[in-house]
Design a protein that fits this description.
heterotetramer, A: 334 residues, alpha/beta, 7-stranded mixed sheet, 11 helices, 19% strand, B: 325 residues, 5-stranded parallel sheet, two-stranded antiparallel ribbon, binds thiamine diphosphate, binds magnesium ion
Chain lengths: 334, 325, 334, 325
């Protein structure tokens, strides 16, 4: 049945299982990914189907985990290596950004690196400053990497498949607060092309560009604003490196107003690159500055009372959209 | 010969305080009154108590994701601790840190840490400062068996040994890293075998015996204060609860029998028996201690529950220091 | 004599020596900073004056070097720790971004971290992909840090002094190709405030914003264009975190055209944040899109033949300025 | 009993090729014909030659910033090597990598590395792939004494031991990391003491004796191919030149006498003496080898100098693979 629903979590597991069935060179390595099935259960059951040879529990050694993937990939395997939390990208940054990303170029092209790094980003679980970050902007500044941040079960499976099949180091960033969300997921193997955004809602007044969990918040804001007679076009980027700037520009030239949204710290985030490109390539079409919604310039606080004020939500997004449409609501939180 | 009765009583009281605090934290977590993660210390009390009772006030301690026990053992304020776990404005970190970042710099407790191994280089930095200042203060760092597999631990341990810094490395070997047994992540029998790689003296201690931990710590501190460089102490211990949260039985990564065997060697029960046997305390004294600690913790819970949540207007405070030298 | 000249290298050493003389809590730790005086000689002679107690040679352990600084700072010393090459920031990223930057916030303010990290960035010496990077954008996305990138001996000394005196973790990024450049440096101790830019050339047609070595290239471009009758206002940011956006906006509102220049990869660089803020706050003043000049999306190549094409220079900057002034020169390299 | 004469001759020829290649690279660097940095291998030839002669073609090797010797010993193309050092389009990396990123995947040489310790986890990954494929290929990783102080080395060594991977760890202990003597950065006598921390068998070899290195490597490979897990080989050696570039005497971080003492134990001179003594070769044969290698290198230099610089239009090629499975 083409309308089968799966959770975001199970879409990930299914996509990975299908890749492992299709290609004996695909294996998974990481902390507690084997016997335990991952601390978020995203690898549940895979060890039963593929054994410990292909579902490899590793020591707590993020640098060596990425290196394991690089070395195995450079000699021809197709590894999937897991960093439990996206915050741990910072522990393994040398292997990711100095080694994996640059290897092919430094070798003058005489190599390919079919490596997939999976990780779990995002705030909202009171996990504190070192277990809640959205660090994609750092990865997007590194030539040689690809980075996807799907918001739906469908896109997660399709982008995971595309990443595992890709001959470049790809980082697949899941969002912990989306794990239980449901959506239609085809049972067969399919790809969502890396670097292609989706227009998830057509509109005429303003373009709202978001990704990962913020894509859902943006949609909620659009729904709310529809009641006020504001027509939002919503774009889910799905991939943040490469960026599907063309889809964004087509919409921007149509609506003449753009609000970019992400959960990461606003300053220096992916939204900055988007705003810079939009104002550059759609300069004469813009009726308002490209606006950015993101986290304020602070670490992620622990207390739910602070964290909920820290993470952007549909209300903050709606407020920004109104302002970008020159319809500010006084005293609204930014 | 056994230490003075006051020491024994200290060890006992601190262990009981840790045990009851953590059991309460676990209950509050399951009742969703504590958000996020809690990595409970129950089972390992003899290590934190044994080490901290042996310390001087000026010695620093650094901790891990499983850090409540260390701060309690150091004399941390239970009210501010409980309030922090609940994310209240009256907590140690005003609700900004939570369980994994609890700290008390006035007690020279340099903080828990959410990154495995992340606190070890920082503890070595504190040890460097002690040597730099020419005092005989020691920086003590607690870390798990699993954390010795990460690079930051290695670099910091070697740095301490190469520079001969006053640092005490306390490895709490509870035989698991999350849900993975230690023998699957390192091909050595005892973690202490790693000390030799740094030219650091190492010693194994029964981490279920607070007196043994206290005495080994004392010996190690003497050697470190004498300028002989860092020491590595491996404490064999066990966590009764799950990696995070409470659930303890019926886990597939370790058998209920194994848990039961370790519980039979419970450090608190054992010490209480010894106290009575040695006439250090009567059953009544022990009951009194337990009752007093229970009261303390009830007060702490009431304080925390009655405390306000942090004001969102304070969200952007504390990112930077404004004062400057 | 107030017009005494020093090299960029010696301005650094002098500033550091004066800080060490002024405050016994200041010490330096890093690889070969002691007996050797640093591989770039930036610490030359300090071990003779202050001894090995305060000029500490460390093992090759970047994570532990930063951690040494954090731990010493949190208990009250004022450490200066060195990462030989900025590329090694990636090796120590956890200690820098997860630990140092967040410590004060995670502790609810109950700490201060007077830590200075010094490092050497930039390309142009054929040092290859792992010894030539400009990674400031990654650091600028991390709340809790301050980042300065001076272009002159005067600013280097003043910003180093300000950083060592600052109670927050500050990263002082030198540029290896500026080490021999000379300029007037007062002998006494002075500060250049962190977060304050300098208008280094007044002009009316276009604002050129740059920092580190690109500030000099921007000035050279401005000189060349003056001959063509183009009047450039040049701003040397000096600090990239925090950004002195006010100084940039005042100029942008005056010239109505802005070109932002840095040596780092253009995509996701500091220029993106600047462009996003400028178009937001000076929207009605802009007569052209905010343009960005930076390195293309590739690792730094080794061969001088490629590296010189990779690193922006005054010619590329001038070409972009002409284009921003709607005076493109056909067939010019971007 | 000594290895076959062909082996001895192989060892000798490869050492001479490394020595002459590096001396030429040093001269060209000083003549500014080679840009950037060159970390020369002169003095350590016995290690690369001894190890590589013992390898099978399918074994992988991974290298460091001081990587020319390893690729030459592996049979690298001198013309493409010299061209790469000069940043020419005909180089191994088309001029994009340079000295610190030279590699030849066809020879299973997985690359030099500019990050100290950065190549070790990658080598362990190759070892994992060998085990995964069920073959008995071994991944060999060269690294310096100083690199054992960095976290990536520790994590990778432990990973290899924990997963019992077919990896040979070859530590080239030349007693210095840049300008810092080893005893100032680690409090152990021999680097091999670190092997025990991973439960890895370790052995010390005279790194100035190519035959000894060859034999110990062979023994280690047998054990690894038999599935007994990784082995750590510490080769005591010395670099004659400066950390980078040539200048060798008058450095304040080590004495000229020390350099002279090591040079007296020169691996090439010693092997040549033994070859003549054992009748493996005549002085004339040795001269012939040296002359032949000199000619090879002259040809390589001419090739490199005559080669074009890379076309700036290729600047953005090779960042990504376009082909996909
Ligand atoms: C760098 C990093 N990797 C992984 C984790 C996830 N994690 C948290 S605790 C833990 C296990 C730590 O084991 P151990 O050091 O033995 O301490 P224990 O939990 O047994 O007290 C892991 C893997 C982390 N927090 N940081
Ligand atoms: C992560 C990192 N830190 C520092 C450096 C600078 N560096 C290059 S080589 C070197 C010394 C390495 O010593 P060793 O491992 O003994 O190798 P050797 O040079 O002696 O062959 C250093 C510190 C680097 N390239 N990478
Ligand atoms: Mg453990
Ligand atoms: Mg060395």
């Amino acid at each position: 049945m083409s309308d089968r629903e799966l959770t975001y979590l199970h879409a990930f597991t299914e996509g990975l299982r299908q890749m492992m069935e299709a290609d004996p060179d695909v294996f998974v390595a990481g902390e507690d990914v084997g016997r335990t099935g991952g601390v978020f259960h995203s690898f549940d059951g895979l060890v039963d189907d593929f054994g410990e040879r292909r579902m490899v529990d590793t020591p707590i050694s993020e640098q060596a985990i990425i290196g394991l993937g690089i070395g195995a990939a450079v000699v021809g395997l197709r590894p999937v290596v897991d960093l439990m939390f996206m915050d741990f990208v910072l522990v393994a940054m040398d292997q990711i950004a100095n080694q994996a990303a640059k290897l092919k170029y430094m070798f003058g092209g005489n190599a390919s690196l079919p490596l997939t790094i999976t990780t779990m980003g995002g705030a909202g679980l009171s996990a504190g400053a070192q277990h809640s970050q959205s660090l994609e902007a750092m990865l997007c500044h590194v030539p040689g990497l690809k980075v996807v941040m799907p918001s739906t079960p469908h896109d997660l499976k399709g982008l995971l498949v595309a990443s595992v099949r890709d001959d470049n180091p790809c980082v697949v960033v899941l969002h912990k607060r989306l794990l239980g969300s449901k959506g239609v997921v085809p049972e067969d193997v399919y790809e969502v092309p890396i670097g292609s955004a989706a227009v998830t809602r057509a509109g005429s007044d303003v373009t709202v560009v978001a990704y990962s969990r913020m894509a859902a918040e943006a949609m909620a804001a659009a729904d709310a604003l529809a009641a006020e007679g504001i027509s939002c076009e919503v774009i889910d980027l799905r991939s943040v490196l490469p960026l599907d700037i063309d889809t964004v520009l087509v919409s921007a030239r149509k609506t003449n107003r753009v609000v970019v949204v992400h959960e990461a710290v606003r300053s220096g985030g992916v939204g900055a690159e988007l705003a810079a490109q939009i104002q550059d390539h759609a300069f004469d079409y813009l009726d308002a500055p490209v606006a950015r919604v993101g986290a304020p310039f602070a670490p992620v606080p622990f207390s739910p009372a602070l964290e909920s004020a820290y993470v952007p939500d549909s209300a903050v997004i709606a407020a920004q959209i109104r302002e970008t449409l020159y319809r500010p609501m006084p005293g609204e939180r930014r | 010969m056994r230490p003075d009765p006051q020491i024994i009583t200290e060890l006992h009281e601190r262990m009981v305080r840790i045990r009851f605090f953590e059991e309460a934290a676990g209950r509050l977590f399951e009742a969703t009154k504590i958000p996020g993660f809690v990595h409970l210390y129950v089972g390992q009390e003899a290590v934190a108590a044994g080490v901290c009772v042996a310390l001087r006030d000026d010695d620093q301690i650094s901790s891990t994701h499983r850090g409540h026990g260390h701060l309690v053992a150091r004399g941390g304020d239970l009210e501010r601790m409980m309030a922090e776990l609940m994310g209240k404005a009256t907590g140690y970190c005003q609700g900004k840190g939570g369980s994994m970042h609890i700290c008390d710099l006035e007690l020279n407790m340099l903080g828990a840490n959410g990154i495995v191994g992340g606190g070890v280089p920082i503890a070595v930095g504190a040890g460097f400062a002690n040597r730099y200042r020419g005092n005989d203060t020691v920086s003590v760092v607690f870390f798990g068996d699993g954390s010795t597999n990460i690079g930051a631990f290695h670099e910091a341990a070697n740095m301490a040994a190469a520079l001969q810094l006053p640092v005490l490395f306390v490895c709490e070997n509870n035989e698991y890293a999350e849900y993975t047994a230690r023998d699957r992540t390192m091909a050595i029998d005892d973690v202490v075998e790693r000390a030799a790689a740094y030219g650091m003296p190492g010693r194994v201690v029964d981490g279920m015996d607070a007196v043994a931990v206290y005495e080994s710590t004392g010996a190690a501190l003497d050697s470190i204060r004498a300028g002989k460089g860092p020491v590595f102490l491996e404490c064999k211990t066990y966590r009764y609860f799950n990696h995070h949260g409470i659930q303890t039985l019926g886990m597939k990564y370790r058998s209920d029998d194994e848990v039961a065997e370790w519980r039979e060697r419970d450090a608190i029960t054992a010490l209480e028996a010894a106290m009575v046997a040695d006439g250090v305390a009567t059953a009544a004294d022990i009951q009194a201690t337990r009752a007093a600690v229970t009261a303390e913790i009830d007060t702490a819970i009431q304080f925390a529950e009655a405390s306000p949540l942090p004001d969102p207007d304070r969200l952007l405070d504390d990112v930077y220091s404004v004062a400057r030298s």
